[in-house]
Design brief:
Elements: H1 4-11, H2 27-39, H3 51-62, H4 74-91
GO cellular component, one term: cytosol
Region (Disordered): 1-33
GO molecular function, one term: DNA binding
Length: 93
């Protein structure tokens, strides 16, 4: 996040940095870590897994509906945001 100021300037989105040792400030991150731990327990040697194995886990997580997203999947929400952005670009004079 060395270029967080540039990201904010170009997008208008503020970058938030959680305080150290304050997991309650990183709810989504902590929840995602918990989901990943269902597949890869803490201390798992990732070198024993292929890129295909890890991609399969990522695909499962991205296709899992989330309450926070109105029971849509992260993949659906990402696609929706991309379509909105494409529409915005296409209709901007």
């Amino acid at each position: 996040m060395a270029r967080h100021a540039q990201i904010t300037q170009q997008t208008g989105i503020q970058v938030y940095f959680a305080d150290p040792r304050q997991p309650q400030q990183r709810g989504t991150n902590e929840n995602t870590n918990g989901l990943i731990r269902e597949y890869l327990p803490k201390g798992t040697d990732l070198s024993t897994h292929t890129a295909n194995d890890l991609n399969a886990i990522a695909d499962e997580l991205n296709d899992r509906p989330r309450k926070r997203l109105g029971y849509h999947t992260p993949r659906e929400m990402f696609a929706s945001l991309l379509l909105q952005d494409l529409h915005r670009v296409a209709t901007t004079p």
